[in-house]
Write a structure and sequence with these properties.
The strands form three sheets. Strands 3-4-5-6-10-9-8-7 form an eight-stranded antiparallel beta barrel. A six-stranded mixed beta sheet has the order 12-11-13-14-15-16. It has three domains: 118 residues, no CATH class; 146 residues, Rossmann fold; 49 residues, Irregular (Dihydrolipoamide Transferase), CATH 4.10.320. Strand 15, helix 4 and strand 16 form a beta-alpha-beta unit. It is of the alpha+beta class and 346 residues long.
Length: 346
Amino acid sequence: MPSVGSGRLTVMELLVARNPDPASSLPFLLWLPLGDGLVFRTRGTWPRTSALYCHPVGVQEWPAEPEIVERVALRVCARRGAAIDVVCDRGREQRSQIVFTRSRGRDVVFWQSPRTRKQARPDVRVPTARAQGFKTLEIIVDAHERYPYRFAGQQVQTVKRALACGDYAVALDGRVVCAVERKSIEDLVSSLGSGRLRFALGELAGLPRAAVVVEDGYARLFAQRSMNGATAADGLAELQVRYPAIPIVYCESRKLAEEWTYRYLAAASAWARQEAPARARIGSGGLDTLAAAPSAPSPSSAELRAWARANGIAVSDRGRISQDVCEAWSRAHDLAGSTPERDGGP
C-alpha cells in the first residue's frame, strides 16, 4: 500500500497524484489497489471527454509523500480478461475501465468511461458476418451429436470428436476452453426431471467457459406436459444459482440457437487468446482457468489420414498410423506433448 500523507490506505481506493517528474508529458499518477498495486502515468484525473492514455510504471515510482488530487473509495476493482473494471463509490462518474490492448504493433493502456467509449466509436455496429474477426473458426462437434449444427452460413470448419461434455466446443493449444450443450425444450425438461441436467452442468463447470443453449423460448417451458411449469422453472432457477457461470440461453428457433452458439464459441476463443497475455501484463488475480482446462480430444484416424494426405505425407489406408504422422500433426497444431492415439481404425 502507498503512503498517503501521514497515513496509509485503509479501504479500497483509487488515488490520483501529481507526477513529481517535471520532464514527463503525463502530469498525473494513477494508483489502483489490485494485487500489490498498479501505477500508471496519465494525463487526466478522470476520462470525462476522451479516453486517457496510461503508461504503466513500477509501484516504486509512487512517491513516498504524494500530492493527492483525487481520492475515491471503490466498490469494485477487478480484472476482467484484458481490462480492469473500476466502479467508484459515489453518485456520478462511477464506472470506468483500464483497457490493455495493442495499437500499431505495441502494447498500450487506456482509461475509458462509458461516455468516452461511445464517443470514440459512435458508428460501430454489431457484426453480421464473421464473429470476432475470425477468418475460419474450428468448432469441435461431439461425435455422438445427432443432427448437429452445420454452421453453413458462417466461416466455420467443423471436426467430429468425442467430447467429454457439451455438444460443441473450441480448443486452444490442445485444451478445451469452451463448450456449449444444445437442448430442445423437451430434452431440457426431460433431463431436468431425470437429474441428467444437473450432472451435465457439473461437468461443464470444469471448463473455463461453458453454456447451455435451448432451441425454444422460455415461455414454451410452461407448455410441457411432462412436468409442471412452476416445478420446471424452479428447478432451472435452482441450477442457475448453483452454477452461475454457466448461462442457460433461450433462443426462439434452432436457427437462432445455432447462430448464438457460433458467436459464443468465437467470443470464447478470442477471450482465451487474449487471456494469457493479459494475465502476464495485469497479474494473476486468481485461478488460471486456462491452465486447468481439460485436454482437447484427439483426432480420429480418418481425420489424421485426411490431414496427412492433404499435406503430402504418405499414410497407410488401414492399420495403425505411424508415430511420425502423429507427431507431425501435433507439431502442425502446436501440440507438442499431446500426441494423438494411433488406433487401427479405417
